[in-house]
Amino acid sequence: MPKERILITVKTYPTISTIYGELVCTAGIREDGSWIRIYPVPFRQLDAYQKFSKYCFIDAEVIRNTKDSRPESHKVSTDTIELTGDVLGTHDHWRERREWILKRGVIHSNLTRLIEANKAGKLSLATFKPSRILGFKAEPDSPV
After folding, report:
1. 40 preceded by cis ω (within 30°)?
2. In angstroms, rounded to a whole number, what is the distance separating the alpha carbons of residues 62 and 81?
3. What is the mean pLDDT of the chain?
4. What does DSSP say about strands 73-76 and 56-64: parallel, antiparallel, or unpaired?
5. What is the mean predicted confidence (pLDDT) over 78-82?
6. Contacts (Cβ under 8 Å, ≥6 apart) of 81
7. Would 142 be classed as within a structural domain?
8. In the chain, which end has fewer C-beta atoms inside a 10 angstrom radius, N or C?
């Protein structure tokens, strides 16, 4: 399997799978800007030196998951996960993260076209930057 360098940007909450046990669905961006989903990741079972956080880089062997129709889906060989030590911080209004992500790959700004591409099976993960923001509304969450 080829080894790839991936900036981890998404980690789901651990879920239980009848096939894989407890796992975390993880996604990130390759150095060329393309998205990759690595699944399954038994995160709590990884060795301490392999546990990654969001916005850190890992090197890992990955192979296309042919059982998943989503084009970004890959299986990861968990014993090959290596932390590179590089982490993109949040200082200066997330400058490092913004620069790294927005200067690579395709940046979508048309939501309608993005949804159409998803429905056509061409992509399931993408970087979306709206061309303009019409408004923003925040409401406090109600207590559970």
Report:
1. yes
2. 10
3. 92
4. antiparallel
5. 92
6. 46, 50, 52, 58, 59, 60
7. no
8. C
- Taking alpha carbons only, the member of 131, 139, 93, 87 closest to residue 112 is 131
3-state SS class at 48: helix
Residue 141 lies in a domain: no
Determine the Cα–Cα distance for residues 25 and 12; give it in Å rounded to an integer: 5
Would 95 be classed as within a structural domain?
Answer: yes
**Distance (Å) of CA 136 to CA 12, 112, 132, 133, 143:** 25, 20, 11, 8, 22
Q: CATH number for the domain including 43?
A: 2.40.50
* R_g over Cα of the chain: 17
List pLDDT tens digits, range 9-67: 999 888 888 887 888 889 999 999 999 999 888 888 898 999 999 999 999 999 999 99
How far apart CA 48 and CA 105 sit, in angstroms, is 31
Counting the structural domains of the chain, the total is 1
- Terminal alpha carbon distance of the chain: 45
pTM for the predicted model, two decimal places:
0.87
Cβ atoms 50, 61 nearer than 8 A: no
Tell me if 93 is assigned to some domain.
Answer: yes
